[in-house]
Specification:
Structural class: alpha+beta
Number of strands: 7
Order of helices and strands: HHHEEHHHEEHHHEEHHHHE
Mean pLDDT: 93
Number of helices: 13
Shape: globular
């Protein structure tokens, strides 16, 4: 029996994943310009080298080809939970980078995603609310991809909603959980969601314990309901997904406080660890 026929007969096995097919140009950007760094304690940081990307000759073409690929793809063709969740994570992360690389006021990179509007200029929609990213001929906002699809009611009804999404979608800021150097797909989704969440908790930007006080990323303030729905409480969510040594220290705390989110652009110069 040929390998192709054998794979076709395996239950739940797709011959091709929509993510590897539709995010090749995004993967090229990650291969060339995303820097991952492991720190003591199995922590993980990443930064995107926007300067090197902008200095390259092929950036505009790479971004254009990726946009056109997504414009031509019908997301109703996605097959199953893993492929679908992976697709929308990839779409969010690509369009966030695309936004920063293509809209540069005065020809300069923004210092923060809030430079586009929102908090600093409430009369201009924030980058998260701009309905401008074309997938299958329909314009989406980043907020729609995250809150209405990945964390929305349809996925919740299907049992697909996963609070670890907050450690996978990347808002191009120092305070975000790290952007990864590979696109998500049906095969690596579960491993990456678990790893991202666990390794984020190993960094002081996302979690630290001082005495009986637990300090956590403001994600746990903004999306408290998601973590409560997933595990009963934010603290219980951390204990479920953190390394055992972290979970043990968290269990001994009685107070939770929040770490100020760092909205500086996630470029290497903004991380002391990359200087």
């Amino acid at each position: 029996m040929s390998l192709i026929v054998l794979l076709a007969l395996l239950p739940g096995r797709a011959l091709s994943d929509a993510n590897s097919d539709n995010f090749q140009h995004f993967q090229k950007l990650l291969d060339q310009h995303l820097i991952e760094k492991s720190l003591p304690g199995n922590a993980l940081l990443s930064a995107f080298d926007y300067r090197s990307a902008l200095a390259g000759d092929s950036l505009d073409q790479t971004l254009k080809e990726q946009r056109e690929t997504l414009k031509a793809f019908d997301p109703s063709n996605l097959q199953g939970q893993a492929e679908s969740v992976a697709f929308w994570i990839n779409a969010y992360n690509f369009f966030m980078l695309d936004q920063i690389l293509t809209e540069r006021p005065g020809g300069e990179l923004v210092s923060s995603v809030w430079d586009y509007g929102g908090r600093i200029n409430p009369f201009v929609d924030s980058v998260f609310e701009r309905k401008k990213f074309d997938i299958g001929g329909q314009d989406y906002s980043l907020s729609q991809m995250e809150k209405e699809i990945l964390l929305g009611s349809d996925y919740a009804d299907k049992g697909w909603k996963d609070a670890r999404i907050h450690f996978a979608v990347n808002c191009a800021s120092v305070g975000c959980p790290p952007l990864r150097d590979v696109v998500y797909d049906a095969d690596n989704l579960e491993d990456l969601l678990a790893e991202n969440t666990r390794r984020a908790f190993n960094t002081d930007r996302h979690l630290k314990v001082e005495g009986d006080t637990l300090y956590v990323t403001e994600l746990f303030k903004w999306y408290e309901e998601d973590f409560e729905e997933a595990a009963g409480s934010g603290k219980a969510f951390i204990k479920k997904w953190a390394d055992s040594s972290i979970a043990g220290r968290v269990a001994d705390t009685s107070t939770m406080k929040f770490i100020d989110y760092d909205w500086d652009l996630n470029r290497p110069a903004n991380f002391s660890e990359f200087r």
